[in-house]
Specification:
The chain is an all-alpha fold. It has a single domain, classed as Growth Hormone, Chain: A. The chain has 19 helices and 4 strands. It has helices at residues 20-42, 48-55, 59-87, 89-109, 113-141, 147-176, 189-195, 198-207, 215-220, 224-235, 237-251, 272-286, 289-302, 307-335, 337-360, 398-417, 419-429, 436-464, 467-488; strands at residues 363-365, 370-371, 387-388, 393-395. The strands form 2 sheets. It has a two-stranded antiparallel sheet with strand order 1-4. A two-stranded antiparallel sheet has the order 2-3. Helix 1 runs antiparallel to helix 5 (113-141) and helix 18 packs antiparallel against helix 19.
């Protein structure tokens, strides 16, 4: 039994009136966009070597090939919220589905770095739009008392997409003999890693025609009868009439949404609630989570693991991530959003600090280094004949390698228990109805720009400053995020969207 007010029944309705089957179906369809968001973000992890070889790119070029999608994400997020205020939440998700299909196909057929970047930016537009639209749509459909749990399904979908991309990368590379080896129909394995995404993208496109438009959007557009119809299907006719009146009341003194609503005219400048949203979005990236998602295979190869072992560790990380998000889903509507963010910040600061420490004990072995016969490395490798290293890597002792591996996976779990799902939950619910679309656009744009900066800078920082300083920066960012949440963020658990204040 669900409830629009969090009290156990829909207002004025009976327990039997809430159509939980339709609510859950609607949420699950919307979260396919999250699955594609995750797959599109994670698939690049196993293709870096293939891109480097196919397009003959160096560190900066490789970094841009990996990060190029994020430019599209920033643009997609920036325009999706405002466009959704004009054309609707579902309409924007349908457009995103089309872009996912085009990007998945094009990324696999690309014959040059420039062509690849174009298709990845198109995919980024889809990811950016889906990243802000799905949580907003779910928040506007879900009952208040279980909104956190339903919106958290979006993060489960994102992590499931990441996990599936890691799994697909591993099996395709393993079957082909490497990501750069030939696979089916004469195409190299890394191209098939992109093409697999076509399956969920097509499913997403057709499934979106099975779900209704957001009732809050319909009220904003003056389509009250259609909004009442949608709400009646979800919560019963009595509850529908009351909710439409409630939404109208929250908008009665306002005008149609516009970007200037983000400004606080009484004090001057941007509203504090918007700054809070931007801060949440940026800190989620400054802790470096997407370095693990995008460069995980390269990172673990750099500490001496084979490509297959590195891809297998990504699969393990994906499975642990899903477990952590499920744990978060079970408690988010009980303990609240803010406590989870605080726990996550401290946990990430500690585990990232341990990763940085482990890396500080290693010896960097650059490509081209000549090792004499009998050389014994920290990781236990013994070279029986003179060897010239083909790839750079960080030589860690077995103990420090295990510490780095365990701490990195613990870090991923802390993130996916807290900042991973909670940031998206809060962005979908913390803003008043009047500014939700615009504030989501601005926050989403900030999130993806920060993501681009971190992703683009990682190979440069790792090569120039070393992994210790790079991961130390992420650890400090996690610690600073604790104090940001403590000082700025307000709890939203159990509150109706119509009660949110700016």
């Amino acid at each position: 039994m669900t409830d629009l007010n969090g009290t156990g029944s829909a207002p004025g309705g009976t327990p039997e009136q809430t159509n939980m089957g339709l609510v859950i179906l609607t949420v699950l369809v919307a979260t396919i966009g999250g699955f594609l968001f995750g797959y599109d973000s994670g698939v690049i992890n196993g293709t870096v070597d293939g891109l480097r070889q196919a397009f003959n790119s160096e560190e900066v070029g490789t970094g841009f090939n990996v990060a190029s999608m994020l430019l599209g994400c920033a643009i997609g997020a920036a325009f999706a919220g405002r466009a959704a205020d004009v054309w609707g939440r579902r309409s924007m998700m349908i457009l995103a589905a089309v872009l996912f299909i085009v990007s998945a196909w094009g990324s696999g057929i690309a014959t040059s770095s420039a062509e690849f970047v174009v298709y990845r930016i198109l995919g980024g537009l889809a990811v950016g739009a889906a990243s802000v639209m799905a949580p907003a749509y779910i928040s506007e459909i879900a009952p208040a008392h279980m909104r956190g749990r339903l919106t958290t399904i979006q993060q489960i979908a994102i992590i499931s997409g990441l996990f599936f991309s890691f799994l697909a990368n591993y099996f395709v590379a393993n079957a082909a003999g490497g990501s750069t080896s030939e696979f089916w129909l004469g195409f190299t394995a890394w191209r098939w890693m992109f093409w697999i995404e076509l399956i969920p993208a097509v499913v997403f496109f057709f499934a979106l025609f099975l779900i209704p438009e957001s009732p809050r959007f319909l009220v904003i557009k003056g389509r009250h009868e259609k909004a009442t119809e949608v709400l009646a299907r979800l919560f019963g006719p009595t509850a529908a009439g009351l909710k439409v009146a409630e939404i109208q009341q929250s908008l009665v003194a306002d005008h149609k949404p516009r970007l200037s609503d983000l400004l606080d005219r009484s004090k001057g400048g941007v509203r504090m609630i918007v700054w809070a949203g931007i801060g949440l979005a940026v800190f989620q990236q400054l802790v470096g989570i997407n370095i693990v998602f995008y460069y995980g295979a390269v990172l673990w190869q750099s500490v001496g693991l084979s490509e297959n072992d590195a891809l297998l560790i990504n699969v393990l990380s994906g499975a642990l991530s899903i477990a952590a998000v499920i744990a978060g889903l079970l408690v988010i509507d009980r303990i609240g959003r803010k406590p989870m963010l605080l726990i996550g910040s401290l946990g990430m600061a500690l585990t990232l600090g341990l990763v940085a420490y482990a890396f500080s004990t290693g010896t960097f072995m650059s490509a081209g280094t000549v090792l004499e016969a009998g050389t014994v490395l920290n990781n236990g490798t013994v070279y029986e004949a003179q060897t010239t290293l083909g790839n750079s890597f960080l030589d860690l002792s077995p103990e420090m390698g295990m510490l780095a591996l365990v701490a990195a996976n613990a870090y991923v779990m802390f993130f996916n228990f807290s900042w991973g799902p909670v940031m998206w939950v809060m962005l979908g619910e913390m803003f008043p109805n009047q500014i939700r679309g615009s504030a989501l656009s601005v926050s989403g744009f900030a999130q993806w720009i920060a993501n681009f900066g971190i992703t683009m800078s990682f190979p440069i920082m790792a090569a120039g400053l070393g992994l210790t300083i790079t991961y130390g920066f992420y650890a400090v960012s996690a610690l600073v995020s604790f104090f940001f949440v403590l000082a700025i963020i307000r709890e939203t658990r159990g509150r109706e969207l119509e009660d949110m204040q700016g």
